[in-house]
Amino acid sequence: MTATPLDPIVDQLARSEAELREAQAIAQLGSWSLDDATGELFWSDETFRILGITPGSVQPTLALFLSLVHPEDRAAVRQELESARLRPDGVYSIEHRVLARDGVQRFVRERGRVRFDERGRSLSISGTTLDLTEHINDQEDLRQRERLERGLLELSAMFLQRPGRGMDDLINEALARMGGLTGTDRAYLFNADSRRRSFSNTHEWTAPGIHPVIELLGDISWDLVPECARMLNAGAPVVIPSVSELSPDHPERAFLEAQGIQSMLLVPVMEGDALNGFVGFDAVRNERDWSSAEVRFLQVFGSLMISTIERDRAYAEMMAARQREMIGHLASGGAHDFNNLLGVIDANLYYLHGTVTGPGADPEIAQVLDETHSAIGQAKVVTSGMLSLSRAGKFASERVDVEAAIAELVRILKHILPAGIKLDVTLEPQLAARSTGGFLQAALLNLALNARDAMPDGGRLHISGSRVPRPGPAAVTLGDAGSEDLVQLRVADSGCGMDAGVLERLFEPLFSTKAQQRGHGLGLFMVHEFVLRSGARLEVDSRVGEGSEFRLLLPRWSESLACSQPPGRGIDGRVPETLRVLVVDDDPRSRDSVRRLLEMDGATVVAVEHGLACLERLRREPDFDLVLSDVSMPVLDGAELCRILHERYPALPLILMTGQAPVVFPGTHLPGNPAVLRKPLDLEDLRDVIGGLDLCAGRRQGSAE
């Protein structure tokens, strides 16, 4: 077949048509023409594609075109076609929506011109169709982004200013604003509990007519939504434009459909690398896509919210610390003076007991003295706890004999529990805990007194001690005693119990549900401080009308941590009658009470008021066997006196007395490592220490030589 002169022209025309089709595809611009006489309609390939139809697969008609125009825009398109035929210039121009055959709604701009005959009658109309969808969406995204940014600024200001508003109210209002800004049906906040592997819905907003689901989603196991949990824990958002398009075996599909969710967006709220919770949106009435601006908006909002919560938490902790410090100083200030008075009363009662009770004495005198000693024992325990409130930081641990601690508690309770309350005590043998003895006794006493007040009409108080392998679940928990090898001290009552509101405020300073004349709000606050500052754990369970149970968990004392045994008592439990003791104390009542106790055992005692007087007395009479000195004195205190005595009289034994705890004044930093006794002074402890002084003095003498 030979080439003709027309072949290059045909080829050029074909190339031009191909280039035109390509240009139209790139510009998303289609062309069309309508013959008024025949009704024939022509569409270019790009026009077919804009309308969602495969090019050439159907015969274009005006009726087909109008059927694809959005119903709300159809009348306007017909009107514009008719108006163009009536205009002198025949211009046709309109923007409208089409519901394309491929299921996509598109925005188009159509422009054309009518061709008239010499009489002005319409012959045909031809024009172009431009796909504006991407441009319109970009503009809408921009407007939405601007709306979200303005909303975020408003939310930031709201969270920062928050005049007199609680966090719950702020979060609820923020969710409502977020839902309105994004046009969603639900907005919500979930907390994450990694230990229990669960989510819980804490705050929710719903649009009018949308059913809330917060009551149904109080505790969702991660296993119920494994894919969402995996992504959220990895710090990634969960974006589901269409729940119905999830595969039938998708693990979350049935769960989401049960809540009527068609589309969902979840954004994690992270605290460092840990998942704190998530913020989410649900579309219930219609499916919808989630823009990148909305995802980013939620991420920024989550960060804003967690930073505000952290700021609130830090502020609350700072205020609580200041409140605890203030309460501690106030409590310990009075307790310190009261502690010295207790020492005087206790020593003098012991002296009276030895002098007025004997053969032929009125037996009621012994009972009165016994009851008074019990009251003083209770006062000692309470005072010890109050003194501990002023000490910052954690306490040094010591070996606590649980049986001895409970026995002393029981002796006190027998005198203060009414007859209608039955006390049961169950203890495993040889229990030893790593704790702080005085503070522990104060905590246990406060728990027992709290139980007593919960049973005004009588009941049962059960105190038990046992080994437990690990902590258990509880309504309220406080502190961390470790994960295993624990000693549990349980205080349970059959009283009135506590509701959720009381449990939530249980350890607030000065909070009390008791009558004003009975409750001061310091008892459980003292328990709170003991738990947090001694390395313990407290578990609380309670039900209204059924009673309460407090479980103190303490690390068990390992025998490898056992300290040396205390020195043994003298042969008859009394100090040697030939003992010459120099007592140093600035409080004359304390000096006299200690002097009486030692003289009752037969010792010779000289009392002076401060360290300088002690040194002057020793200069004139150096033959004392023992110096017994208070630590806190105004002229020369006990610590400085210890240093001078160690230098001048290295073989002279020294015993120090103090109301401070071992962690505050351990005494081990002093030369010679003197024995330190706690006030109020216990005569048996004093006798024990004196009974071991021969060995201690020999060691001092050997080191001096």
List the helices and strands and how they pair.
Blueprint: H1 7-27, E1 29-35, E2 41-43, H2 45-50, H3 62-68, H4 71-86, E3 91-99, E4 105-116, E5 122-131, H5 133-161, H6 167-182, E6 186-193, E7 198-206, E8 220-221, H7 226-233, E9 238-240, H8 253-258, E10 263-271, E11 274-283, H9 292-356, H10 363-388, E12 398-401, H11 402-416, E13 421-427, E14 432-435, H12 437-453, E15 459-468, E16 476-479, E17 486-493, H13 500-504, H14 523-533, E18 537-543, E19 547-555, E20 580-584, H15 588-600, E21 604-608, H16 611-620, E22 626-630, H17 638-648, E23 654-658, E24 675-678, H18 683-691, H19 693-704
Parallel strand pairs: 13-15, 20-21, 20-22, 22-23, 23-24
Antiparallel strand pairs: 1-2, 1-5, 3-4, 4-5, 6-7, 6-11, 7-8, 9-10, 10-11, 12-14, 15-17, 16-18, 17-19, 18-19
Helix pairs in contact: 5-6, 5-9, 9-10, 9-15, 10-11, 10-12, 11-12, 12-14
